[in-house]
Amino acid sequence: MKAYPSNGLRSKRLTISGIVVLLLALICSIQIDPRRADAASLNSGGFAQSVGFNDSLARVETGNTHSCFLSHAGRVKCWGTNSFGQLGKDSTASWGDDTSEMAALGAVNLGTNKTAVSIAAGDYHTCALLNDGTVKCWGLNSSGQLGRDNVLNWGDGSGEMAALGAINLGTNKTAVRIAAGDYHTCALLNDGTVKCWGLNSSGQLGTDSTANLGDGSGEMAALGAVNLGTNKTATAI
User: Fold this and answer.
1) pTM value surpassing 0.85
2) Residues 39-83: tens digit of each pLDDT
3) What share of the chain is helix, strand, coil (3-state, %, to 5)?
4) Domain containing 21 — which CATH number?
5) Which helix (H) or strand (E) covers residue 179, if one does?
6) Which secondary structure element, helix H or strand E, spans residue 39, and what is its range?
7) Beta pairing class for 175-180 and 66-71
8) Does some domain include residue 205?
9) What is the average pLDDT value for the chain, to the nearest integer?
């Protein structure tokens, strides 16, 4: 790196440039984060009521062309493009693109006595962390991102959401947090370990390889935790 002389003019120019860069970075970081919106502002604007929630919104997630909202009561509603079942409506019909559809939008079927405590959205798949620590994902499964040991999409056919099983996270393992990339998913488990599955073309699963995981028989049961280092555990993902 070239060292500039420490004269006042150069220092001033560098400082101003640095401030401009930092401000631009801050502005861009606020504008280009499509995954999460401000639930508080949506609550104050009455948005929860417009989509049929009688309670306030706890979390907002957006995928590539779909959006999902989690209410404080643990219900999830999704709308937008539904080509792969990412809305969890047992169909591929888009929702929210016609008159009065939002008022009639039903909650995702998470299972009997199941509510969500968190949600995550990838490009074309959606996941929910449930009240019992299990995780369910639906939508596009081209790389195993749903963690179902196959590449079959889910949520795009009649009765699929009611039949959707939880992901195999391992014996006595439950999730405390979840996150979704474009085509992969990660979970922080109750023992502080992290497991990831789905597309791995660039090593995004942290498995020291580029092989996808979760797309073949038995892979989720055999899925190991990401190596975070000796005596290291995660507190967030």
Assistant:
1) no
2) 555 555 555 555 555 667 788 999 999 999 999 999 999 999 999
3) 20, 25, 60
4) 2.130.10.30
5) strand 175-180
6) helix 39-44
7) unpaired
8) yes
9) 85
Contact (Cβ atoms closer than 8 angstroms) between residue 196 and residue 209: no
- Flag whether 2 is in a domain: no
Domain count across the chain: 1
Helix and strand counts by DSSP (H, E) for the chain: 5, 9
Contacts of 4 (CB under 8 A, 6+ apart): 10, 14
* Alpha-carbon span 126 to 62, nearest angstrom: 9
Calpha distance 79→87 (Å, rounded): 6
Chain Cα centroid distance, residue 31: 18
Cβ pair 137, 125 in contact under 8 A: yes
Which residues have C-beta within 8 Å of that of residue 72, sequence separation ≥ 6?
Answer: 55, 56, 57, 58
Q: Is residue 4 part of a domain?
A: no
Is 171 within a domain?
yes
- Residue 51 structural domain: 10-222
- Tokens representing 105 are 């939008």
